[in-house]
């Protein structure tokens, strides 16, 4: 499923809305999550999962080709943890 | 870095602000967007949202794990897991946002 198909699926459930509006709704949701993460906030959506930012401290790495040590700067990366309900829906007959 | 938690209510508020639907309908639409993404994933579809992220379902085979407390070996049953891969746009936004708020030197 790509973004236009997501818009299509939501639009099909809302015949009273313009396609354009549904596009704006999907974008507003994704933009809001992006903004939150870039500001260092967490986004918790029960039943789906939680978005957060993980810090990767600076480290000294190595150029794998030359073996030369290189400094790798501190990083912040987006992270997602699947929610319990979605995990259970993916594994309907699992005990855990 | 405010460190707060954004929830469905905040997403609904953003839709209300930007799209101009009622608050109630904004909340319903947010729910439907999340619902459609979840349904696609449960069907086993990958969900690719350009300039945001890709969600994919992967099948994990049975493997042997260990109870970290007792050291006892236990089989981990085969399962389906979802993977999340942030787009470069999202990664850069997050990186820039954090570098800005925490200047070096």
TrEMBL record, chain A:
Family from the record: Belongs to the bacterial histone-like protein family.
Key word DNA-binding present: yes
Organism: Pseudohoeflea suaedae
Subunit structure, as described in the record: Heterodimer of an alpha and a beta chain.
InterPro entries given in the database record: Hist_DNA-bd, Histone-like_DNA-bd_CS, IHF-like_DNA-bd_dom_sf, IHF_beta
GO MF annotations in UniProt: DNA binding; structural constituent of chromatin
HAMAP family per record: IHF_beta
Gene Ontology CC terms, in alphabetical order: chromosome; cytosol
UniProtKB keywords: DNA recombination, DNA-binding, Transcription, Transcription regulation, Translation regulation
GO biological process annotation, one example: regulation of DNA-templated transcription
Name of the protein described by the UniProt record: Integration host factor subunit beta
Transmembrane segments: none
CDD domains per the UniProt record, alphabetical: IHF_B
Task performed by this protein: This protein is one of the two subunits of integration host factor, a specific DNA-binding protein that functions in genetic recombination as well as in transcriptional and translational control.
UniProtKB/TrEMBL annotation, chain B:
Coiled coil ranges: none
Record GO terms (molecular function): DNA binding; structural constituent of chromatin
CDD domains, per database record: IHF_A
Keywords of this entry: DNA recombination, DNA-binding, Transcription, Transcription regulation, Translation regulation
Record family assignment: Belongs to the bacterial histone-like protein family.
PANTHER family per the UniProt record, alphabetical: DNA-BINDING PROTEIN HU, INTEGRATION HOST FACTOR SUBUNIT ALPHA
Role this protein plays: This protein is one of the two subunits of integration host factor, a specific DNA-binding protein that functions in genetic recombination as well as in transcriptional and translational control.
Subunit architecture: Heterodimer of an alpha and a beta chain.
UniProt protein name: Integration host factor subunit alpha
Organism of derivation: Pseudohoeflea suaedae
């Amino acid at each position: 499923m790509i973004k236009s198909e997501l818009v299509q699926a939501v639009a099909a459930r809302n015949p009273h809305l313009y396609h354009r509006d549904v596009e704006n709704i999907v974008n507003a949701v994704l933009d809001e999550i992006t903004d939150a993460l870039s500001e260092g906030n967490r986004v918790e959506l029960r039943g789906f999962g939680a978005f957060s930012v993980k810090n990767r401290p600076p480290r000294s790495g190595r150029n794998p080709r030359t073996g030369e040590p290189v400094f790798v700067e501190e990083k912040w990366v987006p992270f997602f943890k699947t929610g319990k309900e979605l995990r259970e829906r993916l594994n309907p007959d699992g005990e855990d | 870095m405010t460190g707060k938690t954004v929830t469905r209510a905040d997403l609904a508020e953003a839709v209300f602000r930007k799209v101009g639907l009622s608050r109630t309908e904004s909340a319903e639409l947010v729910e439907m967007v999340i619902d459609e993404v979840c349904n696609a994933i449960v069907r086993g579809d990958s969900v690719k949202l350009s300039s945001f992220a890709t969600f994919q379902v992967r099948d994990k085979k049975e493997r042997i794990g260990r109870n970290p407390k007792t050291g006892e070996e236990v089989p981990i049953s085969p399962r389906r897991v979802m993977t999340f891969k942030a787009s470069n746009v999202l990664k850069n936004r997050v990186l820039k946002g954090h570098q800005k708020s925490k200047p070096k030197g």
